[in-house]
Specification:
Order of helices and strands: EEHHHHEHHEHHEHEEEHEHH
Number of helices: 12
Organism: Desulforhopalus singaporensis
Number of strands: 9
CATH topology: TIM Barrel
GO biological process, one term: methanogenesis
Protein name: Dimethylamine:corrinoid methyltransferase
Keywords: Methyltransferase, Transferase
Structural class: alpha/beta
Number of domains: 1
CATH class: Alpha Beta
GO molecular function, one term: methyltransferase activity
Strand content: 5-15%
């Protein structure tokens, strides 16, 4: 039986035969369906995935006319990580004029709203100059990053230290105070950058600190939308489900802990978000086939209920893209082509 080139979730190469590849696809979709309580992929979906993964070509794409647009997070930082020593405005120009990016995001190296707040007046003229130098829609973004509000980095007691000592009430109170402070910072910085001309505001890695992080993002989004009815806000998630660090936080009657993408998107729309970026984490010890079938299962359920555009995250370590500093193009292209062709989405 012919061998098919594949990889593990960390990018390590391996070979599978036809039967093994299909078994991996079935196992991946069943895992996602069991966790999120959604439907498994259909036989036609699995056959389509098989054809993409079994392609002998290095790079796989979609049919002409079925392309989707891309949004980015922290793009002006990432280009310097690969040794291209340019400033942020030049990075934006490279993305637009050389790489053909559909949109782009300007951001600060300390990529969180808390440290951004005191220097926002220095970020505003950079954004204004960037807008004069580019044509594509330009977002300004950062992370809610509620971890920065806990001691020793912030003013509030650290829940990660309180919880192991059984101080659950105190940990919850700290998280609730953190939410209030984070919302103020996000609204302050988001307002300043939107009024300076940003085409959109991006909240990136939402939920990284658990349900309090997600709540702060939803509340800030709602406040910004009430303040600026035409504002474009993208909420990009950090993980596939919401960690219950508090456990009892709710947004407009819905408990946040444990929610998967198909429930997260409903709340994002309810808060006023324009674009939602759902996430599925890559498992490094499983195959690309397993990871991809699993990711598609989560995202297909999300797309079916979404009332706003969704842009599934397809970066390193999410969306079946390997956890690797230089994700292999064979894996990235296959994951992107599969996501685009099987999920009801508007971009990546």
């Amino acid at each position: 039986m012919a061998k098919i080139f594949s990889r593990y979730g960390d990018g390590t190469p391996l070979e599978l035969d036809e039967k093994e590849l299909m078994e991996e696809l079935h196992a991946g979709t069943e895992d996602a369906a069991d966790r999120a309580k959604v439907s498994t992929l259909t036989d036609d979906d699995l056959k389509h995935l098989y054809e993409i993964l079994a392609s002998p070509y290095k790079f796989v794409s979609v049919e002409p006319g079925k392309e989707v647009l891309l949004t980015y997070d922290a793009g002006t930082l990432k280009i310097r990580r690969v040794g291209v020593n340019v400033d942020r405005i030049q990075a934006l120009q490279i993305y637009e004029k050389i790489m053909g990016a559909d949109t782009m995001e300007l951001c600060h190296v300390d990529y969180s709203y808390k440290p951004l707040k005191p220097i926002v007046t220095m970020e505003q003229p950079i954004l204004e100059q960037a807008l004069l130098s580019t044509h594509i829609p330009l977002f300004y973004g950062a992370m809610p990053n509620l971890g920065l509000y806990s001691q020793p980095d912030g003013p509030f007691p650290n829940p990660a230290e309180l919880l192991p000592n059984g101080k659950i009430k105190e940990a919850r109170e700290s998280l609730e105070q953190t939410v209030e402070e984070a919302v103020r910072d996000i609204v302050f910085a988001g307002s300043a950058m939107y009024e300076s001309g940003a085409d959109g505001i991006n909240l990136d890695s939402v939920g990284a600190a658990g349900d309090a992080d997600f709540l702060a993002s939803l509340m800030a989004t709602k406040k910004l939308k009430e303040k600026y009815p035409d504002i474009c806000i993208e909420i990009g998630m950090a993980g596939e489900f919401i960690l219950g660090m508090h456990g009892e936080l709710e947004f407009e009657g819905t408990r946040l802990a444990g929610l998967y993408a198909h429930d997260q998107v409903r709340l994002a729309a309810q808060a006023g978000a324009t674009i939602f970026g759902p996430v599925v984490n890559t498992n490094t010890t499983e195959t690309s086939a397993w990871n991809l079938a699993r990711a598609i299962t989560f995202m297909k359920a999300c797309g079916e209920v979404a009332e706003i555009p969704i842009h599934p995250n397809m970066g390193m370590g999410v969306g079946a893209v390997p956890v690797n500093d230089h994700p292999p193009i064979d894996s990235v292209s296959r994951a992107s082509a599969a996501m685009t062709s099987l999920v009801r989405l508007d971009g990546l």
